[in-house]
Amino acid sequence: MANNNVVIRVQGLAKELPMGKVTVHALRGVDMEIYANEMVSIVGPSGSGKSTLLGLIGGLDTPTKGKIEIDGVDITRMNEDQLTEIRNEKIGFIFQFFNLIPTLTALENVALPIQFARKPQFKPEKRAKELLTLLGLGDRLRHRPSELSGGQQQRVAIARALANNPPLLLADEPTGNLDSEAGKIVLDALKQIQKESGTTVVIVTHDPDLAEFTDRTITLVDGEIHKDGLKKQIFEA
Ligand SMILES: Nc1ncnc2c1ncn2[C@@H]1O[C@H](COP(=O)(O)OP(=O)(O)OP(=O)(O)O)[C@@H](O)[C@H]1O
Ligand SMILES: [Mg+2]
Q: What is the pTM of this model?
């Protein structure tokens, strides 16, 4: 998406949360840059600020201090309507807790965001079927969430996040509810999407296999970046 390759630029990002008399410092000044077509994992102990960071990047929350640019535009200065537009047009979000619509089938859940897109790029049913098949759910298209296992529901939520082919995909524990076989299907699917569509992918995870699978791993400890390691040379020129 960005020509100069930086898709996400985070500067001096801090998030403080008041908790009664104390203040929780969820993030204490985070700086990072994520480039177009990178697949980055964010790891670190429970409570280290991973979900907070992802939520801020996705415009779901506002920081106490600092700046977040998506494609060169500072989203921390945007109002709710502008943020909603950025989220709809640029960002696919896979939440730690998937919110599928219980009365709709898997196929309908995935097709829905395409039907609501301002300029749909795909035929809703066809795209939904392709994505669900890619995620190993080709035989569960007509099932409702209550008729699916937790891991299958999670994969439907992943397909839904991918529905409009967002240039930026943010995922909080996308393999959290999956066994190793289903986890592998999800990873392969994310890799394929990243390659075919040039998607930038940021994944929060506890899963060392998943982190190993990404191009770069950023480790957060106590609200700060502890380590930022590029594993593979991913830029061609
Ligand atoms: N709404 C809130 N109010 C107060 N404190 C919060 C709130 N949300 C998160 N925190 C605190 O902020 C810190 C960072 O939380 P965060 O959810 O980002 O951690 P995490 O790294 O995603 O952890 P996990 O791996 O367990 O999901 C934690 O100490 C948490 O207790
Ligand atoms: Mg979390």
A: 0.90
